[in-house]
Amino acid sequence: MSSIRTARMSPGWVLALVFGGVLVGTALMGRNDTRAAEGAASGKKPVVAVVDLFKVLNESRMYKDLKERLKDSAEKKRAEANRREETAKQAQKIMEAFKRTAPEFREKFKTFVDSAVDYNAYVKLSQAEQILMLNKGTWEVYQAIVETVHAVAKDNGVDVVLYLDEFEPNLQDTQQLLAQIRQRKVLHHAKDVDLTDQVLQRFDADYRKSASK
Asked: What is the reported pTM?
């Protein structure tokens, strides 16, 4: 019988799927279609700003707290997985102490199989739960950030907010580099139209207020 190996829980890769290619386009809250039409008719140029969504996400207190909860959950699940794995190993050791022809072997074999199945099922379920927790939590953080973007844009008289995507170029892979270039949303912006720091500061402040209630 081969020994049982613990599966690694690593849901962090899901972030690339959740936020890949995100483009935030938002109008000021409270402006209706009539007002927008009036602005277009008068020749008023829309005011555009940018926000580095990933910077706000990664540096926000809300997202850091989510990662802490994920870490705690993963540690508890890992401890329980280790306990179940040890149970299965002990059952295997007891089973192997009997000859296959022994009357007790069938019962010991069943105990081992049941414990091994239980361990593997628990690991798979734990991985799925961690990924779901990460995805749901990340989506909630994203939605909260967008609400803050709306508020900051309104305060600054901004009509449209674009997603500013800073990245490290992949110089080892031509196709990956071209894909990165194709996915750029903002090629130029003046420094004073970057609302990232304002959004981050307000987002953290609002989060602290809600957490203290």
From this structure: 0.71
